[in-house]
Amino acid sequence: MGFGTFRAMKRNARKGRNPSTGESLNIPSSTVPKFTPCGAFKEKLSKR
Question: What CATH number is given for 4-46 in this structure?
Answer without folding.
Answer: 4.10.520.10
